[in-house]
Specification:
By secondary structure, this protein is of the alpha/beta class. Helices cover 63% and strands 8% of the residues. It has helices at 11-39, 47-50, 56-74, 89-97, 150-154, 178-181, 198-206, 225-233, 254-268, 282-293, 297-307, 309-354, 360-372, 380-417, 420-465, 469-472, 504-507, 520-546, 550-637, 640-674; strands at 77-83, 114-119, 124-129, 141-145, 168-175, 184-188, 212-218, 241-246, 277-279.
């Protein structure tokens, strides 16, 4: 008999536990600060303890816990929706949120900036704008816009292929939609609607932080080579892929297309071969919304079932939103355990002192000596920081140069194979999409590299601190590797904003279209004269073959017209290719000038901040150890009654902290045992 499935801890239960834990930790920090104010000599008392308030180190665990709990409430699983032109991607997003006219559906490639669609109690849209003079670290300013104005802020101009608004960083849309309220967030990225050139690179870069990929195709034909290549490259970017096949109401052979697509995936992108497929009709979904609005509930229900969106929405809730909820709740419990471990270890160490345990003073002194080894300029962690930041800059510079080479290769292929009209219209937008993909890839690489550097430096610190583990890791700033933290934990090395930022509206130049004046008599002669001899020869040959008088003249004129038109076409192709090549070279030159300096400045600046934070943390920890040793010596001189009262208070604190720790362990076990909590449980 199969054992019953364990009861999953609810979100409300986990968040209630987090709130109680944060409250207890704050009370404990205030109590420690008050005791320090009563016992420290004024000259030795830290400024943040003098007024009986907790220090930054004491409150760090509480802040992280509250932040993680807030993410568990407001966080959402990120779905990046991808599809080639005319596949129905934008219509699918509109159908999922039940707003048929939310995103423009006339041309999928019309998106020019990121559009994030998330839950909100009231429908609204906000454009995040940047001005030309804004500092790189300044956040975009938010400007409310009407829902019907999204295209004006987020789309590209169909004539020029460039964004209509160069000052728009991204657009956020909030809707009171049950699907989004379940914990999902839809992201439409610039150019995601076309998997060619820079659009594919941009979509791949966006998948770095995605929980799932929703790949949209239609029932007209099997997967294209560009789609299969994209899916093959996306293999390592996301753990979850869902295929949506649209236009089932227009193509009766769509079941055969699905089977053929499965075969193609098994051969060319096997990682996605077992991914689920959902055939849908956006038209039926739109009609269902209209019927519901008109009060025709029975017809609306039938159309909704026909549309095929109910199974898709159920899977998105069950497999993706629930998984994200599980991870967020597990993170809350993990952070709570780490935050509880610090004061619990501190109180246990204090109890050892109050029990006048022999050898404790020697342990604290050894920890102090270990900290002294971290302070000289020749300390190992400083060498690791210097060499690590240098290696990271070199790695990012090399990756950036390789990315520019890829941009040049794709762009030159486009220039060599495109027709003049398509090249003039599409090239600037595709090049811009490639450049944005380079920025995103560089941003992701910088974040990963900085995180590795931070962990490496902290590990060098903790290696020395391990010598004083019993005493040195009891307080807040010298935590060991057990919870993944250490000195300098309060430093937010990987920031919320882009690590390497280049404003496309100010950095990327406009493409300059050259002109050629071929009008007037001289222009006509210039175009016609090189072809006159060939046309005359052709007419003479025709005359000899036919013995006709009129036919050679007609043949000569026709040949002259053909040759002149071909000459003009070659001249136009050369002119457009020259314009595109010059534009490409100018863009790459400006990128090569701007970005390497930004890489150097940013990595050096963050390395300096990390070094200062670690210096502060080491100094703070040394002060704590000195205070701990002074407290132990006072306890050795205290009366039996004073020691008994202090031991009683400390045991009560240990009991309260232990109770919360045991509750956290039980919650963590429940989350792991069930595999996935119910995010809707309250």
């Amino acid at each position: 008999m199969t054992p019953p499935r364990p009861e999953a801890p609810s979100r409300a239960r986990v968040l209630d536990f987090a709130a109680r834990t944060a409250e207890l930790l704050e009370r404990a920090a205030r109590a420690r600060a008050a005791e320090a104010a009563d016992t420290d000599p004024p000259a030795d008392r830290p400024a943040d303890r003098a007024a009986g308030t907790p220090s930054d180190g004491d409150g760090d665990g509480v802040r992280r816990l509250r932040d993680e709990a807030a993410r568990a409430v407001d966080g959402a699983a990120t779905l990046v929706v991808v599809g080639e032109k005319k596949r129905g991607k934008s219509s699918t997003i509109n159908s999922l949120v039940g707003v048929p006219d939310l995103l423009p559906v006339d041309a999928d490639v019309a998106t020019g900036v990121h559009i994030v669609v998330r839950y909100g109690e009231h429908p609204r849209a906000v454009a995040h704008l940047r001005s030309e003079g804004d500092a790189p670290e300044a956040p975009p300013r938010a400007e409310p816009i009407p829902l019907e104005g999204i295209a004006e802020y987020a789309a590209v101009d169909p004539r020029t292929g460039r964004p209509r608004r160069l000052d728009v960083h991204h657009v956020e849309v909030e809707l009171p939609v049950p699907l989004l309220d379940s914990g999902l967030e839809l992201v439409d990225t610039p150019g995601v609607g076309g998997l060619v050139g820079g659009h594919a690179e941009l979509a791949l870069a966006a998948l770095e932080n995605a929980d799932a990929l929703v790949f949209v195709v239609d029932g007209s034909s099997e997967l294209t080579r560009s789609e299969l290549e994209f899916l093959g490259r996306a293999t390592e970017r996301t753990a979850e892929t869902v295929f949506v096949l649209t236009k089932t109401d227009s193509y009766d052979a769509w079941p055969t297309v699905v089977e053929r697509n499965r075969e193609l995936l098994a051969r060319h992108a096997p990682r996605h071969a077992e991914a689920p497929w959902f055939p849908v009709s956006n038209r039926a979904r739109r009609d269902a919304v209209a019927a519901a609005d008109a009060g025709e509930l029975q017809e609306a229900a039938e159309l909704l079932e026909e549309s095929g969106f109910e199974p898709l929405e159920a899977l998105l809730r069950r497999r993706i939103a629930a998984r994200a909820a599980e991870l967020r709740l597990a993170n809350v419990v993990h952070v709570a355990l780490a935050a509880l471990g610090v004061p619990l270890a501190e109180q246990e160490l204090r109890l050892r002192s109050l029990q006048q345990e022999p050898g404790l003073a020697a342990e604290v002194e050894r920890a102090e000596e270990a900290l002294r080894l971290l302070q000289p300029e020749s300390a190992q962690w400083r060498r690791a920081l210097t060499t690590g930041s240098r290696d990271l800059k070199n790695t990012l510079q090399l990756g950036f140069r390789r990315s520019l080479n890829d941009v040049r290769r794709v762009a030159e292929e486009k220039i060599a194979t495109s027709e003049p009209a398509a090249l003039a219209e599409e090239f600037p937008a595709e090049l811009e999409a490639q450049v944005e993909a380079v920025w995103l890839q560089l941003d992701n690489a910088a974040r990963r590299g900085l995180a590795v550097l931070e962990e490496r430096v902290r590990r060098e610190c903790s290696t020395v601190l391990d010598a004083g583990k019993a005493a040195g890791k009891a307080d807040g700033s010298a935590r060991g590797s057990a919870d993944g933290s250490g000195p300098g934990t309060e430093l937010a090395l990987v920031e919320d904003g882009a690590v390497i930022r280049a404003e496309r509206g100010t950095l990327l130049p406009e493409m300059v279209h050259s002109t050629h004046r071929d009008g007037g008599p001289l222009g006509m002669l210039e175009n016609v004269m090189p072809s006159v001899g060939t046309a005359a020869t052709f007419g003479t040959v025709i005359g000899l073959l036919t013995s006709s008088v009129l036919l050679p003249a007609v043949a000569s004129y026709a040949m002259l017209a053909v040759l002149t038109r071909r000459r003009r076409q070659r001249a136009e192709l050369g002119r457009v290719r020259g314009d595109a090549t010059r534009h490409l070279n100018r863009v790459l030159t400006e990128l090569s000038t701007e970005i390497p300096a930004q890489i150097t400045d940013h990595v050096d600046g963050l390395a300096d901040r990390l070094g200062l934070a670690l210096d502060r943390a080491i100094a703070d920890e040394r002060l704590r150890l000195e205070r701990r040793l002074a407290e132990h010596r006072r306890n050795l001189a205290a009366s039996a009654a004073e020691l008994a009262a202090a031991r009683d208070r400390t045991r009560r604190r240990i009991g309260a902290l232990t109770t919360l720790r045991d509750e956290a362990l039980a919650l963590a076990h429940g989350l792991a045992a069930t595999g996935r909590p119910d995010p809707d449980r309250s």
